[in-house]
Amino acid sequence: MLDWTRRAACLDLDPELFFPISVEGPSRSQVEQAKRVCGRCPVRRPCLEYALDTRQAYGVWGGTDPAQRRELSLATPPRETVPARSLRGGR
Ligand code: SF4
């Protein structure tokens, strides 16, 4: 279990609320309900970062649905990576 998940507002809720069948039609209200829970969650930021880092394609994470995360991924430059030369101890 990731440390931040222990403080999640959704910890004791039904996980199915955060993984609706669809984000359209009748499931839309379920998505909005899940997002409202995220809105009062103290670990919203690490949750969203985790979802982006691990490319979570389904569900509501950090107050976002999959389409919103795709947009964020496209708008956010990749994190700075350590040059391969440094990983091998080269100069
Ligand atoms: S931000 Fe939402 S999905 Fe993430 S831990 Fe909090 S309540 Fe759960």
What share of residues are in beta strands?
under 5%
Rg is 16 Å
Range of helix content? 40-55%
Number of domains: 1
Major sheet: none
Ligand names: iron/sulfur cluster
- One letter per element, helices H and strands E, the order comes to HHHH
Overall mean pLDDT score? 87
Overall, the morphology is: globular
GO cellular component, one term: cytoplasm
Family: Belongs to the WhiB family.
Pfam family, one: Whib
Subcellular location: Cytoplasm
Descriptive account of the structure:
- With 91 residues, this protein is an all-alpha fold.
- The chain has one domain (3-69).
- The protein has four helices and no strands.
- The longest helix is centred in the middle third of the chain and has 13 residues, at 27-39.
- The site of iron/sulfur cluster (SF4) has 14 residues, from helix 1 and helix 2.
- The site of iron/sulfur cluster has 14 residues, from helix 1 and helix 2.
- Belongs to the WhiB family.
- Residues 9-71 form the 4Fe-4S Wbl-type domain.
- Its cofactor is [4Fe-4S] cluster.
Secondary structure layout:
Layout lengths: L26 H13 L4 H10 L12 H10 L8 H4 L4
The structure holds iron/sulfur cluster.
Question: What is the compact description of this entry?
Answer:
With 91 residues, the chain is mainly alpha-helical.
